Amino acid sequence: MTAATAGYLASMDTWIWIVIAVVVVALLVAAIVAATRRNKKRQEQQRLEAQQLRQQAVAQHSPGLSQAEVEAREAAARADLSRAQAEKAQLEAQQAQTGLAQEQARQEDVLREADRLDPDVDHRSSGYTPQAPTHAGPTEPTHAGPADPGHTDPGHTGPGHTDPGHTDPGHTDPSTGAHRRDV
Does the reported pTM lie above 0.85? Predict the structure, then answer.
């Protein structure tokens, strides 16, 4: 072989390798494009199948879901009503407790005033606490001042009396808890 022939064969070998490389690249590109198309086709088929399943689920189960939804809403409404009733009852209980505490405070004020007026009670001592009488009092009025001519209650025992029609000195006004001294 001559040098020219050897150079010709070498250049031909290069061209063969270039053609082989181009064919291989073309085959790779074709394989990638085919795989992408198959993937897209499969995804589209899966989308259609999923849509059909959703439509079947809605068609078959809508009445049951609607009934369950209605029942859930009714249960929530009943729970809300029960909660509101419980809050109202709690508020009423708090108001009753407040009213009781106020009534007890008014009673204690009346007892303190009675003890202040009573010469037999040391209301200034450090251990003093107002005490309600534990025994029945006298059958005649024991309040200071003249007896009210219209007074007919024989069980009246004095300063703690709250008869709204009774206004002689030393008696309590039921609306304010203060002693009346305006007669």
Answer: no
